[in-house]
What we know:
Largest sheet: 5 strands, parallel
Strand content: 15-25%
Bound molecules: [cytidine-5'-phosphate] glycerylphosphoric acid ester
Radius of gyration: 14 Å
Distance between the termini: 47 Å
Order of helices and strands: EHEHHEHEEH
Amino acid sequence: MKRVLTFGTFDVFHIGHLSILERAASLGDHLIVGVSTDQLNFSKKNRYPVYPEDERAAIVGALRCVDEVFYEESLEFKGDYIRQYRANILVMGDDWLGRFDEFENLCEVVYLPRTPAISTTALIEKIRR
Ligand code: C2G
């Protein structure tokens, strides 16, 4: 049984999010998703997500391709999460290319291409206009 782990904010859930989760799931048998907390987002971007963490986690957890969800509290805990959730594969979008290679001693690290031309930031801009 192959356990796949991925991370993200998944704010204003869109087709790019669905696509990476479906592709991540297809690499194994069990997909675990670390949904970043509101606090982690605030510390990274100096703003809170549009949807609060419990709603983002509920949406991600309701997807057919997702088996398990937890809160990612800090970017520093990746190695601990990989061990705790016994991940065989870590999947990230290629906007993070190379950034998680240090975990190759714990599991396989795979970067998948992002879906072009869609992002939460672009959606927020579009709605604002
Ligand atoms: N994504 C994608 N295509 C897009 C937009 C996003 O494939 N057009 C992917 C990202 O590459 C990422 C996932 O969807 O793998 C979640 O994206 P974000 O919510 O933007 O996640 P991020 O804020 O990068 O948080 O520990 C890492 C962080 O928690 C990742």
